[in-house]
What we know:
By secondary structure, the chain is mainly α. The chain has helices at residues 9-37, 42-84, 96-100. α1 crosses α2. The relative contact order is 0.04.
Amino acid sequence: xxxxxxxxxxxxxxxxxxxxxxxxxxxxxxxxxxxxxxxxxxxxxxxxxxxxxxxxxxxxxxxxxxxxxxxxxxxxxxxxxxxxxxxxxxxxxxxxxxxxxxxxxxxxxxxxxxxxxxxxx
Length: 121
């Protein structure tokens, strides 16, 4: 029996997300302290950080909107293409007897084992 504890993929992803969040919070705190050291009031620092966060959120929503619009266009084009296909474009020879009457018919190409010229290689 193996006694080593194995971390799951979900745990690894959670830890990576936690490290990223801590790095972001540390960076935000560092920027906040730097702005405060330059003479910006704490209310101004908080407002500036919120403006930056909302701007980033706006850009992400803008990109998501256009991505969704492109996906919708692709889906609509696929639906329109599927709706325009007709059953008239089928192979013209539906019956084997009609196919045998065509010039240059080779029973080996069609696996027509009942034809007299069929040869099994």
